[in-house]
Automatic annotation (TrEMBL):
The keyword NADP does not apply. InterPro entries: DUF2637. Keywords: Membrane, Transmembrane, Transmembrane helix. This is DUF2637 domain-containing protein. The keyword Transmembrane helix applies. The lineage of its organism: Bacteria, Bacillati, Actinomycetota, Actinomycetes, Streptosporangiales. It comes from the Bacteria. It comes from Nonomuraea helvata. The chain crosses the membrane at residues 7-29, 41-58, 74-95, 101-121.
């Protein structure tokens, strides 16, 4: 319950911003579509398509980063789709504005706020808070001077961490990632990794 409350306090404001800004942007897009011949349910469909395209493209960018998908150029397909959605959303918002500088700024605010909220949620999902290492790890990391290799308990824990990493990311864990998760030295992380690879 406490964890949910912390998550709500941390993420709640961004979700509220996303909902309110999305509703404002959605309304401008729907009205613009209706003004240009897409009446009835079609105006709603156009608004849904544009807003959801932005969300979908942002999530796809995040997925590409998580899977280390190689890119052939500086711009990827999700970035291109997101850019197109942003342009259409801003154009629809500006089309509904009073033709003054403040009219354009206030009309563009919902679209801008919606995109900022989506990018913040994407950023948080791509860089979650690191899980604290269990308190037993520093104790396990203390090596007996007469012992050859890492302690068995630490080796078992390192094996579980490496297996979880492989299951989640589809590739073997690196020394730096193992060192960060276990809170051990570079040398000990290298020893653990070498032992795991030869086991």
């Amino acid at each position: 319950m406490r964890r949910f409350a912390c998550w709500l306090l941390d993420t709640g404001p961004i979700l509220v911003l996303a909902v309110i800004a999305g509703a404002g942007s959605f309304t401008h897009i729907r009205d613009t579509a209706a003004d240009h011949g897409q009446t009835g349910w079609m105006s709603w469909a156009v608004a849904v398509c544009i807003d959801l395209t932005c969300v979908m493209a942002a999530r796809e960018r995040q997925r590409d980063k998580k899977t280390d998908r190689p890119r052939r150029s500086w711009i990827s397909w999700p970035v291109l789709v997101l850019s197109g959605g942003v342009v259409l959303s801003l154009a629809a918002n500006l089309a509904q504005a009073v033709p003054t500088a403040w009219g354009w700024i206030t009309a563009a605010t919902p679209a801008g706020a919606f995109l900022i909220a989506v990018s913040m949620l994407e950023r948080r999902a791509a860089n979650p808070r690191p899980e604290p290492s269990p308190a037993i790890v520093p104790v396990l990391a203390v090596q007996d001077e007469q012992q050859d290799g890492p302690a068995p308990a630490l080796l078992d824990y390192a094996r579980r961490v490496a297996d979880e990493h492989h299951a989640k990311h589809g590739k073997p864990i690196t020394r730096d990632a193992l060192r960060s998760r276990l809170g051990v030295s570079n040398q000990l992380a290298s020893d653990l990794l070498a032992t795991l690879r030869t086991a």
